[in-house]
Amino acid sequence: MIATTTVRVRYKDTDCMGVVYYGNYLTYFEVGRVEYLRQAGMTIAEVNDKVFIPVAEASVKYHRPARLDELLEVRCWVSERKRASFRFEYAIGSEAGERVATGFTLHAVLDRATSRMMAIPPWMAELLPVVSGGAAERV
Amino acid sequence: MIATTTVRVRYKDTDCMGVVYYGNYLTYFEVGRVEYLRQAGMTIAEVNDKVFIPVAEASVKYHRPARLDELLEVRCWVSERKRASFRFEYAIGSEAGERVATGFTLHAVLDRATSRMMAIPPWMAELLPVVSGGAAERV
Amino acid sequence: MIATTTVRVRYKDTDCMGVVYYGNYLTYFEVGRVEYLRQAGMTIAEVNDKVFIPVAEASVKYHRPARLDELLEVRCWVSERKRASFRFEYAIGSEAGERVATGFTLHAVLDRATSRMMAIPPWMAELLPVVSGGAAERV
Amino acid sequence: MIATTTVRVRYKDTDCMGVVYYGNYLTYFEVGRVEYLRQAGMTIAEVNDKVFIPVAEASVKYHRPARLDELLEVRCWVSERKRASFRFEYAIGSEAGERVATGFTLHAVLDRATSRMMAIPPWMAELLPVVSGGAAERV
After folding, report:
1. Phi, psi of B44 (to 5 degrees)
2. Where residue C13 falls among pLDDT bands split at 50, 70, 90?
3. Contact A74, A38 (CB under 8 A)
């Protein structure tokens, strides 16, 4: 499963170099993974009611700058799932299909009550099927 | 009492028009009033432990754009105090003393437990002496 | 003409009080007016190619807090048009139709070349028909 | 050379999980490297007058969440310098010395006129002495 959503670049997202501020791609990644979960069948609120999935690590590669009012496509999928953590992968492209930014976020799975790491429960593993090799290339 | 603090303009604060994004002056106002409270003797965490003071209304006038890496001076004072609400006034100036932005935020005072409006308690009124007329002109 | 668009509340938009940060409603207003212009027939880039319309004043009233993942409706219309300035009015509502925030932005019209105020050109006046009294009440 | 600066966590930086939003550490990194350059002898405006140094890649590891009003220490140094690119490394710590976040940004060096990659000029290499192994451990 690869979820696709779109984001429109706002003035707020850009900076005085004329393009999207480098940190704001992590906001676009956030939009991508929240929509991934919704398309997989759960809202982020429903997930948060059961477990917390904080970001343990994030990484972005910048391919070409995005500009005001561009309509970007954010693709998000799961590239790895371990006992108590998993990885979302992202590819952001332009309307013309150019690669704008790629990256990943690594998430820990925490028990809501204790804030301790816990094994990914079965209902959650189902939401997070691993998309194997080559996905990145297809983007 | 008029509290003064400084903020340095970050790339993050600017937009593709080359100047600070209009919404981000409300962030500078936030810095101004949190420092006001600290200078008056209480951290924002200490205030929040007792009451909530959400913003009910905010207003900004833009006098001249601020640019990347400028060191701005934010002045904050209380211009009005009613039974269950009060108003912070702000004046943001450049290092050279030019007026950059002015505005205000109107705050309700809410009971932490019930989230209902409550009369400003005496300890809080002491933090919030009203600076009377002319303060704005002096800025 | 009243333009309607929707924005989904992101983690990025919220703060540690659990609701949307007060300054971020100005971002939602921005989305509202850029979509207004698009629906009126011009992208923001097309407008910026001809004139600049910086914000001279902004104001927000907060009616009820918005929360993570809410789908908000942003309505935007022109409430006033003078020789060299005009006013966008905004009303943000929840999916259930509750009033979340209202406000306005006052825009100056500047000549691109000289950065001086200029009379609103006829092509622009056509984009900005004034919606007279009662619009706010209808929201 | 390791540059140290401090940033105070703002409401604006936090999200509804009660801690600093994951993308905003890239803003703190920005503050760290702009102060690095200032401490090395050049403002960011002076650098931008000569070359552009866009971020080609960014990475963050999250060690423990930062909270509203915390005073964070941002340390920044150069960990690698190649012909036409270099790497800033960052370590963000709490007042008590706990590790909050670490990461890096990889920068390309571009000719201002042509926007093409260029060899790091001598004046710039001088600003960017490589701090060799062990710096990360000392943080």
Report:
1. -65, -30
2. very high
3. no
Per-residue pLDDT tens over the stretch A78-136: 999 999 999 999 999 999 999 999 999 999 999 998 999 999 999 999 999 999 866 55
Write the CA distances from B64 to B3, B30, B68, B97, D64, integer angstroms.
Answer: 22, 20, 14, 12, 40
Tokens representing D134 are 């062990």
Backbone angles phi, psi at A109, to 5 degrees: -110, 120
Q: Which amino acid is at B138?
A: R
Minimal CA–CA distance to A106: which of A46, A38, A29? A29
Q: Which of D23, D55, D60 sits opposite A62 (nearest CB)?
A: D55
pLDDT at A132: 84
Nearest by Cα to C64 from C33, C36, C38, C96? C96
How does pLDDT run across D15-52, given as a tens digit for each residue? 999 999 999 999 999 999 999 999 999 999 999 999 99
Is A55's Cβ below 8 Å from some Cβ in D?
yes
Mutate to test the interface with B, among A9, A14, A15 (most CBs of B within 10 A): A15
DSSP A100-138: EEEEEEEEE-EETTT--B-PPPHHHHHH--B--TTHHHH
Model confidence at C132, pLDDT cuts 50, 70, 90, reads: confident
Both tokens of residue B24?
């981000």
3-state secondary structure of A46: helix
Q: Place B137 in a pLDDT band, splitting at 50, 70 and 90.
A: low
Q: What is the rounded distance in angstroms from the CA atom of residue D110 to the CA atom of residue C119?
A: 41
Question: Could you give all domains of chain B from N- to C-terminal order, each with its CATH number?
Answer: 3-134 (3.10.129.10)
Q: What does the alpha-carbon distance between residue B65 and residue B104 come to, in Å, rounded to a whole number? A: 18
Report yes or no: D69 and B34 within 8 Å, Cβ to Cβ.
Answer: yes
Q: Give dist(CA D66, CA C19) in Å, integer.
A: 18
How many whole angstroms separate alpha carbon C30 and alpha carbon C104? 11
**Torsional class of D87: left (φ above 0), alpha (ψ -120 to 50), beta (otherwise):** beta
Q: Is C30 on the interface with A (CB under 8 A)?
A: yes
Chain B contact present for C110, CB below 8 A: no
Is C16 close to D16, i.e. CB distance below 8 A? yes
Find the angle CA(D4)-CA(D6)-CA(D9) to the nearest 5 degrees: 150
Read off the pLDDT band of C136 (50, 70, 90): low
The half-sphere exposure of D22 on its side-chain side, counting CA atoms within 13 A, is: 27
Strands (E) across C30-98 are located at 51-52, 55-62, 71-81, 85-93
| C-alpha neighbours within 13 Å on the C-beta side of residue A97 | 2
Amino acid letter, residue B80: E
Asked if the C-beta of A30 comes within 8 angstroms of chain C's C-beta atoms, the answer is yes
Amino acid at B28: Y
Say how many C-beta atoms besides its own lie within 10 A of residue B134's C-beta.
8
